[in-house]
Each structure stands twice: as C-alpha cells, then as structure tokens.
Amino acid sequence: MAKLLSCVLGPRLYKIYRERDSERAPSSVPGTPTSVTNPHSSSWDTYYQPRALEKHADSILALASVFWSISYYSSPFAFFYLYRKGYLSLSKVVPFSHYAGTLLLLLAGVACLRGIGRWTNPQYRQFITILEATHRNHSAENKRQLANYNFDFRSWPVDFHWEEPSSRKESRGGPCRQGVALLRPEPLHRGTADTFLNQVKKLPCQITSYLVAHTLGRRMLYPGSVYLLQKALMPVLLQGQARLVEECHGRRAKLLACDGNEIDTMFVDRRGTAEPQGQKLVICCEGNAGFYEVGCVSTPLEAGYSVLGWNHPGFAGSTGVPFPQNEANAMDVVVQFAIHRLGFQPQDIILYAWSIGGFTATWAAMSYPDISAVILDASFDDLVPLALKVMPDSWRGLVTRTVRQHLNLNNAEQLCRYQGPVLLIRRTRDEIITTTVPEDIMSNRGNDLLLKLLQHRYPRVMAEEGLRVVKQWLEASSQLEEASIYSRWEVEEDWCLSVLRSYQAEHGPEFPWSVGEDMSADGRRQLALFLAQKHLNNFEATHCTPLPAQNFQMPWHL
What we know:
By secondary structure, the protein is of the alpha/beta class. The protein has 20 helices and twelve strands. It has three domains: 1-17 and 46-161, no CATH class; 200-420, 3-Layer(aba) Sandwich (Rossmann fold); 423-557, no CATH class. Helices cover 48% and strands 10% of the residues. The longest helix has 34 residues, at 52-85. Mean pLDDT is 90; it is low at 20-28 and 33-45.
C-alpha cells in the first residue's frame, strides 16, 4: 500500500537513460530486482513507456493543467466580464463552487488511476524505489542511479545548499535570506526631502509600477518563464537534455539559493580529456527565452571547455520568478557550486552570457573579482532604452520608473566594477537590442556597453578625440570598413602595447587608468581604436543565431 501511495504522489517520469554494458553495475537499492534494473541492454537510453491507464490519465491531467494556466492568465478579463454580466453574486457563485469541487474530485480520481497504472509498471516501481532511497540517503551510488532518469525536477533532491561553504557559515558578509547585494539606482531628486506627504503622493505611481512589473512587465522581459511556452517547448527541452547526458556525459544537479529558489543546472566535465581548455570552466548565462538544454552552452562545449549551464528562476526545472534579485541569488549559488563542489578556482572560471544573461554575468564578475574573464554576446548596457523602444511614448515615465524600481538590469554599471579581461560580441544585424532598426548599427546598445566600459577604464584616452574616432569605428558595418578606419589613423599596435605595458608596470593593473593624460590627440586616437578593437568583435548575424565555436575566443589582456 505504501508503494501504491508513492506511485500516486510520485513525479512524472519522462525518460530513462541506460548505462553502457561496460559501465553497468548491480543495483545497491534494496528491493530493486536485477532483471528490472538493466532492461534493453543494447540501448543507451529510452523514453519511458507508460501503461495505457497511466498514459491516458497523464493526458487528462496535462490538459487540465493547460486549461488552468490559460484561466490564470485570462482571469482579470474573465472577472471583469462576469462582474459586468452580474455573475459574481452569491446566488451564482455557490453553484459554481459546487461544479469546481466536483471537477477537483474527478481530477483526484484520475490521479489515483494514474498511480495504479504506475504501480503496475515495473519500470516506474524501480524508479520510485531509487528516488525514495536517494531522499533517505544521499550516497554517491544512489545519486548515480537516479541520474539515469529524467523526471519532474521538483522531486529531485537538493545537491548543493547556498550555506554549504564553510566560509558562508562563519562570515556575516555573505548573502542573507533576503538576497545578495545589488547596485541600487540613485534617487531622482537628491535635494527634495522625502517627507510623508511626498511618499503619499508617490504611492499611486509606486503601486502602478509594482503591478506592471509583476504582471505584464516580467513576462515580457522573460517570456521563457511563461508556463504555456515551456509546455510547448517540452519535447525540445527533453531532447536537448538527453543530448547533454548521452553525448556529453552531463551531470544534472539541483542548487538551493538563499531565497529558497531551486536552480536547475547541468555540468559537463572535460578535465579528464585531452583538450587543454577543458581545465577551464565556462558558466553560461542564457537569454530571456533560453534554456541550458538548447541554449548557448553548445558553443563552449564545441570549443572543448568544461561547461556549467543553469536555468533562470521560473525556467524549466528552476523555481521562482526571474526578477533581478532572484537572478543574482541564483547566480551566486551557481558560482559557489562551481568553486566549492566542482572544485574550480575562480581564476579558472569564465563567464559567458548571451543577451539578457549579461545581467547575471556582470553581477558575478562584480561580486567575484578573481574570475578569469567575461564574454558578453549580444548584450546591452541598460534595459531602459530597450523598454522604451517597445512601449508607447506616452508611457515613458511609467516604464522608466518600473524598470528602475523592479527590473533594473544595469549591465554597464556592474561591468565597470570588474577589473578583469572583457570581450563583447556585437551582432551586426541584431533586431532585439537595437533601438531603431537592425540596419542602424549605431543604435545597437552593445556600442553603449563598450563606450561606457572604455570610458570607465581609460577616461583620458576616451576624451573627445578618442570617443569620436571609436564612434566612427563602431559605425562600420563590415570588416572592410573597420580596416579602412583602422588604417586611416595609422594605428601602431606595437606602440600601443608598449604604452599600456609601461603604464601597467609603473602604476599597477587596477582601473581606471590615467594613461593618455599627457599624450597628443593623435596618440589618444590610436590608443582608443586599439582598445576598442581588442574589446569588441563583430559577428555578422541576427540576435538569435548560435555563435559558432570558432568565434568563441578568450578576451584580450596585457
């Protein structure tokens, strides 16, 4: 009876990965028959085949889940319609509650039938036995056996806790349960006293901003967190996860962040291979509709690096919602996992981000200054200009206030706090992070990210002459035009390198540098062009085109 109850309440099983004959070992879980442990010995993996009763019951419950999701998103309009029609009176609501209760009882009955179908399936009984054993005892053998299954990640045991590093328990400077530290926007009116009357006046605007951010805003900014989209992508995500496990020998893990969110990760270890770059770990930060199963992790994998991918809060197996604070909390536990559990030193970690993933990558670079390098692909400096682009002009004040208070993705500000090597990759036909049209390459916000970084690190070089010539270089839409501008100003790379190395030897590596202070205008132009060319690579593609492995290069450094 206990096993039947476990089958009723157990998670949905999607796929079974089977070990090769040479790697197969007898089961160590009591009650797991050997004849069931290794079926289909000729197959490396197989989709779980539910019995008819489980299959049909699952279909009914999945359909009910989709209807519930549609009802949830359309509930404001439904309530408004019912109110206008007078259906929200007590005499109408009571019969409706009876119908809803009857429907819930029917769905509970369907769930019980599904449990019976699972109970009659030896594959599912074997899986639930291993899952229960792993929850009781987190031994390496139990986890190894559980890794052969792909199932609803909510039931996966936690592999790493944010407080697990001993330094976190002893130090008061680490993250608390409210979250890690973020850079906060400056007050708009410094000279105005924030009196009680002013607070009352601002209250309606603050409430409106909160409602917009937590309803429409968050879903527009992170469409990958919408349940219906995830449901539609489920077959693709399962295939991508199977590829990572089967072909790349990836290891899945659940991390518990300081805010209680559970973060879904996948680690591919290349340290034991002949690839020298396998000693380096690339932590990948996906875009606003990206998942590690089908996202940018493929680029460093093809290049031979060890890779750690993770999903945003609210994406696929990760719980929570992807607000900036939750994003930073998730990134913090991912980095801690890489250092304290996977055994990588910060000097061996590279942060690679695509699009909106630049926020978490720059936060980690700011918070972990010893990290080796940062690569930002198709990223931007600040969210406000991009948000204003897609919203009506009459909403400018509301949009700016909402972003600054609740969705403040201040990538450039965070990146300027990092002292290490940085490479920006600009898509020349980017249709997402341009504020006008894709053909207008100067409206690409990657340009502003580069300019802010260079102006922070080399303020004397990026004075009027340097800033002007870098903007001319950024206007080039082809490699031929870039080379033409570069040669027009006769940039002597050896001279630029000698100037920078001499300054570093005398003053140290910490930015900002005052190099260029006593330099001619021509010298500043040469240095500015040289630095811009070393910090930004162009990629002739649209925003969502996968980056080829040959374009994945380490940032320049002296």
